[in-house]
């Protein structure tokens, strides 16, 4: 079914939720033989979207697509593969196909997500410097979203001390976002692993990031939030982790700091307060 999933990923009119619905509700042997109009009817697509989907469906060429992916060293990870991460497999809405570049062996490692504000302060940078190295020494892969701020700095800290890091991005590989982190993106592909749920030519859309966040938390034993405003996207990742029955950790901050409002509220609501790496490890290794 990997080729069928790849075909569907190259039909951008088909959303992640719609693909999941097809996968859950239609027998796999029948999925392969469905015509695009049958898919459109089953999903109750509006006429304009249905026509667009049909065009995308017939435009797809498996051979040229596979050649392009091979030339760019992009690998495919299907939910049917033995090396697909078990923690992801447990989700209600797991990513059915991931595009990957880097070291696939990291999929089998234990992982911790670290996310936070795009408006990182010096305090946030100090926290990351304090926590990432001892966490990497525990053989944890640091997972984040390669966003500006806390995410990017978490990746950098892991790379600088020779640890392992994994990024899950909200765009395709050929349209990486945000462009300011391109150098870091390339460094992680060389010595870590980058994953995307989106076909390489897909550009970032605002709804991709909540979809991406469920993968970040879903890959990991727990999620650590470092600096987050009240309406931070990092809190979406924390909610995803809770819904996935994973551990949620937060670093406290000053009560007057905007970038601490979200993390302090998480702690009030039951997230574990973190001051040192052992605060995390004692929960993960129970």
UniProtKB/TrEMBL annotation:
InterPro entries: DprA, DrpA_SLOG. GO terms for biological process: DNA-mediated transformation. SUPFAM superfamilies: MCP/YpsA-like. It holds the Pfam family DNA_processg_A. Residues 76-284 form the Smf/DprA SLOG domain. NCBIfam families: dprA. Belongs to the DprA/Smf family. This is DNA-protecting protein DprA. It comes from Listeria grandensis. The lineage of its organism: Bacteria, Bacillati, Bacillota, Bacilli, Bacillales.
